[in-house]
Design a protein that fits this description.
With about 240 residues, the chain is α+β, with helices and mostly antiparallel strands.
């Protein structure tokens, strides 16, 4: 896994988010509301706790988080959202997984397929590319003004993390999906600020894209998918050149 490219991607994504923060908050708020339907206490509802952690990492205001929780707990959200995962290939055999929350399966499926097709990709069946990824908890802590490396590593590993990697400008903590909430909670209790904390899909191998035209088309496809209101997460195994 290329940790540095993951962190660079997060910084790139967060930079874009500054211009579209409302859309980011809407998507995370939907996750929080859906999770809160199973209980509004993050101490006993780990899915809610994880969604709140994601909100914090994206600097979502606390009052916005609380409104999303109340909406789910109070039954104010009458939408019938379901989680759907789409899988396919972009140009040059790049594997792509798209996670969506939708109240209209036909609409979302058509939109996702159109965006794959428009930029030389192909939407496949479930399982067509997910076998090329590992589902992991990933926590990223920025090095600059961050905690002591050895203390952070020991805290994470003692809490149940599987691996700790020091990259150029960040520390990466990998966990099993089952241990993710406990490790994240332990770091929170220790006052450690996380720039990203989520259950993610990590590619087992990467496809290096060096042709600028191909890279531009793959980036455009990913951006169009990100702009879709129903799309919550996108994972891919492309190693793309850094944008100017």
């Amino acid at each position: 896994m290329s940790g540095h490219s993951k962190w660079a991607n997060i910084k790139h994504r967060k930079g874009k988010a500054d211009a579209a923060r409302g859309k980011i908050f809407t998507k995370i708020g939907r996750e929080i509301t859906l999770a809160a339907k199973n209980g509004g206490d993050p101490a006993t509802n780990y899915k809610l706790a994880d969604a709140i952690a994601k909100a914090k990492a994206n600097n979502m205001p606390n009052d916005t988080v609380q409104r999303a929780i109340k909406k789910g707990v109070g039954g104010l959200d009458d939408s019938n959202y379901e989680e759907i995962q789409y899988e396919g290939y972009g140009m040059n055999g790049v594997a792509v997984i798209v996670s969506a929350l939708t109240d209209n399966r036909n609409r979302t499926g058509s939109e996702v397929r159109y965006k794959f097709d428009k930029y030389g990709g192909n939407l496949g069946a479930q399982g067509s590319v997910s076998f090329m990824f590992d589902r992991k908890g990933l926590i990223i802590v920025e090095k600059e003004n961050g905690p002591d490396e050895e203390n952070l590593m020991m805290t994470a590993l003692e809490a149940g993390a599987d691996d700790f990697v020091a990259e150029e400008d960040s520390y990466e903590i990998l966990t099993s999906p089952e241990a993710f909430s406990q490790v994240r909670h332990t770091l929170e209790e220790a006052g450690i600020e996380m720039v990203d904390a989520e259950i993610t899909m990590i590619p087992q191998t990467y496809v290096s894209i060096t042709d600028p035209e191909v890279a531009a088309k793959i980036n455009k496809m990913l951006e169009m998918l990100e702009d879709d209101d129903d799309v919550q997460n996108i994972w891919h195994n492309a190693e793309l050149p850094e944008e100017e």
